[in-house]
Amino acid sequence: MPTPVVSTASTVWTGDLFHGAGRTSLDSSGLATFDVGWKSRSEGHEGQTTPEELIAAAHASCYAMAFSNELASNGTPPTQLDTKAAVTFVAGEGITGIALSVRGQVPGISAEDFARIADAAKAGCPVSKALAAVPITLDAALA
Predict the structure, then answer these.
(1) Is the same domain home to 94 and 131?
(2) What pTM value is reported for the model?
């Protein structure tokens, strides 16, 4: 059985929601610390990250890994996958949807097989599964 890997992050927040601010740290890797705040989340980024941007980064990277594995299992490993995730947040409603987009350079694969395997990777991606409470769309095409 594989050894579980636990990834951690933390946020220190001061003040109330509308006037406060926070710093989010990637604790497991120690690679980054980000400023976060309500105004960035509800009105635009203004040099700060948001929980949704962090979710988008996690989803894009996880999906790229899942898709590359599915393509390799098909005997058509990718040369390159350019993956984007756009997470939509509406104040008062929450996260309302996620749009995945991938463009791939995959020698020896048809557009139909690429699209079919892309859908299978979306269904099997651990982050897609974790975020299944919201609609997730996929736009997949060969580059």
Answers:
(1) yes
(2) 0.94
